[in-house]
Give the backbone structure.
Amino acid sequence: MHPTFQPGHRFEWHYTVPERATVPQLYHDTLFCRAMPDVLATGYLVGMMELACLHGMMPHVDWPREQSLGTMVSFRHLAPTLPGMRLTIRGEVLEVEGRRVRFRVEAWDELEKVCEGTHERCLIDTERFSDKLARKALAASNVIDRQ
């Protein structure tokens, strides 16, 4: 990570909510979810908050050798958002400690604040991570074969 990425760094990202991000669409394979309101699902919103932080980091990492993975989310979903509405997600780096980065993030639709909280990401060396993942896949296939 470049030394330019420090606490206080701010970023903004925009995203238009698609139909597939609503509760009935996202959880279409769960019967009772199909009858729920056609609003942005919290699970999808969490992903958008993470993605905004990733976008905020991109100019400061050696992509694709360095990437980051989410390791903690703590968000409050404050208000419903309809498909087609545009989210504006603003973030600020709170802490950079080694490979760990902590953010404060909030999202707004055109009418109100819809989400706020904190998120943590960890930088990874993609080659080392891929090796670790391959070892885990092998171990998992052995477990599955025994079942």
Q: What stands out?
A: The longest helix spans residues 126-146. The helical segments are 23-26, 42-57, 126-146. The chain is about 30% helix and 35% strand.
